[in-house]
Amino acid sequence: MAMHVLVERLNINYKTLEEFRKFRENGLEELSMLEDLQANLIEDNSSSPFYGIYHDGKLVARMSLYPIEARFDRYFTPPRDHYELWKLEVLPGYKGRGYGRALVNHAKSLGRPIKTNVRYGAQDFFVKLGFRPLKYSPTRDRGENPYVWIPQEQTEEDATRLR
Amino acid sequence: MAMHVLVERLNINYKTLEEFRKFRENGLEELSMLEDLQANLIEDNSSSPFYGIYHDGKLVARMSLYPIEARFDRYFTPPRDHYELWKLEVLPGYKGRGYGRALVNHAKSLGRPIKTNVRYGAQDFFVKLGFRPLKYSPTRDRGENPYVWIPQEQTEEDATRLR
């Protein structure tokens, strides 16, 4: 039986940014948040696009979930408000506990379609969670592996098609 | 002294696609090329966006270089025709021989600005080759770490600025 795992929306503060440094995918985005905080361009504890899971008070898994408006949608027909999911990562020593799945399920619970770029080795993980690959488009995808998940639609007429 | 390393434009054929399977970043793009070849949608030996280095007849390093027209440019001011570089990868056992550098230098020799998404651990490699990080934009970059390289400009007036 899976334990209940709490997924929390992360606030941007020095503690969070310090915890982010343990994750592999730590780059210009995190640096930019730190600079904005230092320059008072954003307030301490501003809400971020990151969600995470704590274990014994320590951030051990995270993902970023960025809302994309329908007018910027390049993946669904008709265009839809959706989320772009990236930086899904569980720290070494905390894998195999369902934390990654809990994060993705949280994203799905928000009720919008999701697009993500699936890295080598993670295809099965996302397929098991109901995602499927899109047909590759060189101009749109530029080397990405776009996979999408769509909430169950009410009727056939409502069905969202993929590009 | 560095040996001369030959960088070749790769053609899409069954042999190339079979060699691509040894690389980690093998996904929808390579699958799409295979399907197009099987369905006769493209000819055998069509030119691809990939460049590679062979050692004893075996493909041991590759990159993809995709031309972006100025009207689709989101990185330079004024907008410029440039290349997007991705899937730069050297097979295990062939690292430390300058193959990655030779591929990037080949891209630079084409005379256009280059944009790439730098992964964790590769920042120093690209900075040494004259690339620099852009200011992170959440809407544009969505978790990417965009680094760019710009050819030396003739005059101050010609100088390309970064967004």
Automatic annotation (TrEMBL), chains A, B:
- UniProt domain N-acetyltransferase: residue ranges: 5-153
* InterPro entries named in the record: Acyl_CoA_acyltransferase, GNAT_dom, YlbP
User: Any idea which UniProt keywords this protein has?
Assistant: Acyltransferase, Transferase
- Is ATP-binding a UniProt keyword of this protein? no
Pfam families documented for this protein: Acetyltransf_1
Mind telling me what this protein is named? Answer: GNAT superfamily N-acetyltransferase
- Could you tell me which species this protein originates from? Alicyclobacillus cycloheptanicus
